[in-house]
Task: structure prediction
Amino acid sequence: MILGALNTLYDRIDLQTAAYAIPGAILVAHLIPWLWDPQGIRSYPGPFFAKFTDIWLGYVSKKGHRSEVIHEVHRKYGPIVRIAPNHISIADPDALAVVYAHGNGATKSNFYDAFVSIRRGVFNVRDRNEHTRKRKIISHIFSQKNVMEFEPHIRLYVTQLLQQWDRLFGMAVKGMSGDEGESGWKGRDGRLWFDLLPWANYLAFDIIGDLAFGAPFGMIQAAKDVALVPKDQQSMMKSYGKEAKEEEMMGIPAVKILNGRGEFSMSLGSLPPHWRPVVRRLPGWRQGGKDVKNLAGIAIAAVSKRLATPVDRTDLLSNLQAGRDGDGNPLGREELTAEALTLLIAGSDTTSNSTCAILYYLAGNRYAQEKLHKELDEQLGTEDEVAATEAQVKRLPYLEACINEGLRLHSTSSLGLPRLVPEGGMTVCGQFFPEGTVLSVPSYTIHRDPTVWGEDVEVFRPERWFEGDQAAMQKTFNPFSVGPRACVGRNLASLELLIIIASITRRYDFVLEDPDQKILDKSPPVQFAKLIVYPFHLLQISGHTAILRPLLIVLDGLECESEDAREFAILRAKYRSSIPVDWPAETDFEIVVRAVSGLFIFASTVMKDIGSSEHANPFKRLQRHLSQALDLFYARILHKIPQDTSEALCRHTQLRLIQEMSMRT
Ligand code: HEM
Result:
């Protein structure tokens, strides 16, 4: 019947009429709501197309730079802008406490429907009562006490990761290269070069796999993005408790799929719900739909494996199983799987992207990285434990400032999280918004508000966390969101970041391959940085702390006014942490002589050690530092001793040092 009607219509309408009628109808369909203006928001400025259609926001989201574009829109039009026909973005820190407040009646908007797979989980459930029930079960899992029990597991995987890097480093300094990690690794200039993002993903997936399902995905050990999914998801869910056969499973790239799914859901969620079934079938979107399904498969396989082989410890899944709904009933298998999937998604790429962002900024900022090295060396001591412990990292102000500064510049959820105004409307920053309006506060933009953070908002400068208006900064800093839908895994995420960043920075020095390379603010971000990694704990390696004494005296003599000297101040502090504190401060001639000879002995001894070990590369760094130290030493100290003596001393020391070094290189 419908076909018949369409045929009749087709016969009656000629192509020319259709060419006018179709765009005309589309225009009218968009113009009427704008003229009618049911929410009374027509007066708010914003991009022209965004006033009439959701396509603008959908397009911007699909392109992957939503937060940056919205930021530019705010710079152009001011703090309150219309970014879709029914969506107002408010870039004002004061709005956070209203839009996301406890008890304000606002719910998540239909944006979150695009993130549902299997069934709604705590992240994408929109009904308030349903959310309260789920949240009660889940927040218990993430109590500070429970999170502390996870600490050894986090450290285990950080250790595995660093052992892998050490192994690759050993080969890289011999000039080798390999294909472990998504884009492989190579040795160049005696250093190890690789892309950090895949490794950060392996780490995050293995940690969350262990915490959630009692076993890691094994990505670090395999150095590969791979997870098992069932070929038939439904039947596997029905047979939970039975061990799956090998032929029922297949391997898929989990990280790739997670990223694809994030991009897909983000852009689909920005479109009106009635368009989504059509749009998801379009060529650029079909793969995203498959990713959503495959991702669910990862959770199904992991839950199935875990239920078939129970582990003798508490993990998130056992906590979920112990949870009860309002009537005292346990979660059904679908709900259990949906929540496990939520934790897998929420706890993996968030942590890995944050890790990458923080290390990216540290890699691009020598001063901050050295300062962090210093704090870690001083506080963590000289023990050669690979992964730092919670007790070691919990009160390190500079480490915390580096993490906060990284999260300020690069929050993984930097877009404004959309909330639906409840019955009765909502007044935000003096403006009234009626029921049904969608409001959001973009973290990306408020994290760059110069009135809060200062004029250098784009600069990674951890020091800002010790200056300025602390209350304003704390109020504006929003990486984990606020209110009833704030991140439930925040305690866990913070602990992970502290241990990961401390352990990596303490052990390695890293730089960007291309210093001008910008971090991309895609959500989720794509790969952005290469790291150079090499162990810097020369002194711990050498174990010759006694010989360090004269070296310190030399370094102590240096004044710290120039950039070079600042680096030496950091170096000195680092070395000092390995040495007994009862040192004479004098720099008389005797001591200078001892210092220079000590420097020489130190250098040659360390070089002997290093030269005979596989760590040939740190030697180069030491060599650079020592020759710089000597240059500065000559320039600034030697004028204090008789010239002929100093010249003889210089020549003698320099010559022997150079000879020794050239023998070793
Ligand atoms: C650096 C790491 C992390 C960041 C930056 C982060 C950030 C956030 C943000 C901004 C939200 C609010 C999302 C929204 O309203 O749409 C959120 C929610 C959530 N996060 Fe995290 N998160 C991190 C790590 C984790 C971890 C490790 C877990 C657990 C394993 C986790 C579990 C959750 C859950 C379950 C929710 C939904 C809470 C609810 O709606 O009640 N997150 N997270």
Q: What stands out?
A: Residues 129-533 form a domain with the Cytochrome p450 fold (CATH 1.10.630.10). The chain has a mean pLDDT of 78. The longest helix spans residues 333-363. The radius of gyration is 29 Å.
